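ugh ok fine here u go
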Amino acid sequence: MSGTFSAGDLRRMLSRLRDVMAGVGAVQGRLDKVVALIAQDLRADVCSCYVMRAGEVLELFATFGLSQKAVHLTRLRVGEGLVGEIAAHARPLALADAWSHPQFVYRPETGEDFFRSLMGVPMIQAGRVIGVLVVQTKEERPFNDWEVETLETVAMVIAELMAATQVVKREELFQSEGNATLHVRLAGAVLHPGVGIGFAVMHKPHVRIGRLVGDDPVTEQYRLHTALNSLRKEVDALIDSSRDNEGDYGDILEVYRMFADDRGWISKISEVISSGLTAEAAVQKVHDDTRLRMMQVNDPIIRERIQDLDDLANRLLSILSGGDKRTELPDNAILICRSIGPTELLDYDRRKLKGLVMEEGSPTMHAAVVAKALDIPVLAQVSGALSRIDALDQIVLDANAGQVILRPSEEILELYTAAVETRTKQKAGYAAIRELPAVTKDGMKVSLNINAGFLLDMQGLAETNADGIGLYRTEMPFLAMPTLPDVAAQYALYKQVVNGAKGKPVTFRTLDVGGDKIAASSSNAPEDNPAMGWRSIRLTLDRPALLRQQLRAMIKATEGEYLRVMFPMIANVAEFDAARRIFKLEMDRHLRDGGRPPKTVKVGTMLEVPSLLWQLDALLKRADFISVGTNDLMQFMYASDRGNTKLANRYDTLSPAVLSVLHEVARKCTAANVEMSVCGEMAGNPLDALALLAIGCRNLSMSAAGVGPVRAVIRSATFKELEPFVLNLLTADDSSLRERFRAFARDRGIAVA
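structure:
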């Protein structure tokens, strides 16, 4: 095939494949013709099609060249043999000598003794591997990239055609659920708390492609670019509508809009159209290829952007196919999906949407951020949601306890209806004290601030009447972009943040990401432990241009305003000194160029690496403020991966060890007259907030949802009772003091929700 098989040959082969699969007769007979045709056109001795069955087993469904007796007999588990390896990693394999590969498994019934080389590619449909397509030759033949790409294109076409003809019916892939009349509970991860009671609506993001092979590439290119223009107009309309909505999520859509203009993405689709596919099929193929490459990346933030790519591809496919994107919902709808993009979520009537359940998903995915802005309960990583929930099933989504209840009894419905009413009353109570200060009964005041990472989070300032932004995560809006934006783009964002704060202070944390998230990084090698690897200040000190550009934008954006800059992951005083020197260089440059100075300037650090505790005295002579990041500090203190569910409840922030460390930090900060705050999850938990108040912390920063409950608990407590109770427990032997604190609060009528 190499050197003689042209794009025109590929188009003709695809056309013949389409005719065979669209013809009459049994599916098996058509598949037999397909593999024979592929072997003939690719000048291979063997072509075999393996199809995924229940239990992640690959079954030989059709072959040309191997023994016909092996069809429907030969089966390989995912990960077993070369075929299983291709399916497991969703990556092609091209081997001149397949027998020498360590994963090779010989199956005598196939009669493949005489075939040495092997080229195989995954068959992908709707983002999932549904089979493997393999060609083999007798001689040891090296396969080139063009041949692999050709087979990938063929596999993509066959996968779509197989799905359309239902070679394997969906119900075959799932096992019986037993008694369908009993209620079932599915567990998941809470992305936004709340309770929703309603009826399941299945989100169907994958658009079925009706026509795969194009007759005229020029016409298909025109259709693509027309659809891209429509896509951009739709996103622009969503951006405009977001400005009038109570949930400001316009910056999410702005980042999404950048995807639609990505030249590399559009160029790849155009190239595939030139090979003979329709615009729809080309969009699907490039999307599947990109999605699978991103799935190989271990970093969760990079993988989270897959939902945005799914959203983009599905919306473009819908435009190309002329489909209607908006789905009519029942009055109380719980949306069920594998994952969802931000614009797909916005296509639904948010007045009727009472919850979102996903099989995938993560806290910083854009759809979750939009759902949070709209106050929609979200539960993610719910295994089996799509296979076990049917359309219009009545369900209860308990995104407080992290569970979905299917087929709830009358008793369960009554219980959760009461819970919804209680939650509504609680929110009304928090709203009633919104304008009141967070001060104890005996006059001890606490400053309550919110954490933010997107412009939409800024609305939390007004909603909660918080004192400021205690932590603005500057990396969040740009993690989806291929490179860190230039100074002008960063300035525009930071200026919007400052304006949105309306005179309240904002603490900007400099870039807190790993090297694998910055395209400018020259190191693509995976790290064994990225949480303690080349990230945050370590990266930006090694790449000072990144830090200088970011500081330059911050300084310019805060002319005449408060400027608070915080460096993350500082492990020793020398790192803080180096970072502060870079800050001074940029401030001097700004003033030298005629820029106006900020109203006030404060430079501080996160305290999240334990080594810094032993240099605290020296640090307090240099830093204007310290913010304790309890999430990382906790996991480093206990050598406990906070993402490991097996360790989730083993170590508690309300332990004598953690509280003793924080008490010592607070004591030294007070003595040095240096402001101390806590900005981890601990700050937003009402019970934890009481403990922090008792050990000397007067500044807390949390998610906006935590401000109301924490304000209520502080206003119902008496500091003179609280302080001695907590300090006396610092020497206790308990691994957790939580139940003691809960009993203390209950006995004294403190409003812990």
